[in-house]
User: Fold these one by one.
Assistant:
Number 1:
Amino acid sequence: MTTEATGRECTTCGKWKPLDQFWRYKAGKFGRRSSCAVCSSAEVRRRANRRREENYERERAKERAKEAKRREKRKEYDRKRAQTPQWKAREQLKSAVRRGDILKPTACEDCGKELPSRLIHGHHHDYSKPLEVEWLCTRCHGRRHRVSTDSEGQG
């Protein structure tokens, strides 16, 4: 027969176990917890999972609200951008290329480099004439914009 000094009954599972299977706890009887380590760990996991689920739902609701706000901001930005002459010119050019009214070349007009047509960009000198473009590779197009912004800064 076992005595209290060598073991005790777990208040959770009801099994008699040796004291070394209980977590230390100064305020407890024999300086140990009343639940064994296995039951205590399981309870901690249950509480953590419950808290995690509660937090998850709350966080998901916050994320959905943030995402709806971001979508609305993006729609507003797109609405404003659609009114700019640059955007309108680009859209008209894209539509003309899609319809086949304008053929997109495979060579840059500046450096003459042969590239796939997806890497050739239409550079507008005047956005009021959306179909009058210079077809440039990515590198030349960037260079053209850097030159035009540099010359605008001088004056």
Number 2:
Amino acid sequence: MSKPDITAERLRELLSYDPVSGVFTNRVSRCNVCAGAVAGSLSKANGYIEVGMDGKSYYAHRLAVLYMTGRWPEGYTDHKDGNRANNAWENLRECSASQNGANSRKKKPNGVASSELKGIYFAKRDKRWVAEIKVGRKKLSLGYYDTEHEAHAAYVAAAKQTFGEYARS
């Protein structure tokens, strides 16, 4: 992840951040924005709040880390509750790509008979449920199960053991 052109000093000069609400507001009037107005807008493409400054666009959750710590986050910034628009400081934490993925919602199936439950799918050929977990860039099989709930229980246990507080089932 590349570092931005914006510094903590420039960010604090242009915006104010409320760590309780997670909302940025403009400190000064500039480029069609008024001082005191909420900064940024919700991206319909991905659900993150994006804030424009000095001709560039930044994600508000990453700006919150810069604002609060004085440094750009090294890895990812995770929303604990899974709500990409909730940038309250207590809801944000720095993490690795693997931890960020562990806290994601279930992905939509890609041509595979699937469950609504995360970490499992139905293997038509074997007529059994398969549990798997992704750690780093590797998918690890957790085995085959007769029921959807047995497979999901295996995934949940592995996720808690592997990812701890980042596990989302």
Number 3:
Amino acid sequence: MKIKLFYSTLLALVIVMASTGCKHKPVGVTPMMNPGATVETPPPAPPYNQNPEANPNGVPETTAYNPDNFTQDRDALAAYTIHFAYDSAVIRDSEKANVQSVADALKQNPSLQLLIEGNCDERGTEEYNRSLGEKRAEAAREALVAAGISEDRIHTISYGKDKPVDTGHDEAAHAKNRRDDFVLLHPKNGA
């Protein structure tokens, strides 16, 4: 009789617990969207380095940097590529000599301009890496301006994780891909 009463009580307790569940509200959980709701896709952002205000024809006007007005020299400053720590846009002390070398090269020839390409490793979302690459390029730009280079001569772009130099999936490859590349821009005749 006692065993029957024990199992009946245990069964009732299990039913009560299963039907009531936990009383606390979960923390840090993203609420699910209504299954019948539609998601509005925002319009695509204008390409980087473009004026967000459109001209009368509705086409964005580019800022001073137009790739058609320059020839790119990727080799001249390739040795001065700077690398970043994971999830960081802070220029490390060990990389500051490279930034100074880029500044010195620009000071020697005032007609040259510079394109800084911010890059990330493969980890993270497309949006996050694009933003981080932009922050890295802007950090180098600020360091060059502080070194005496006119900001009008420096252009930036972020490639996020789209242009890896090492396609591996380990930390050594990731470390090579977290970088800013410096590209010298030679004005074309008439530009």
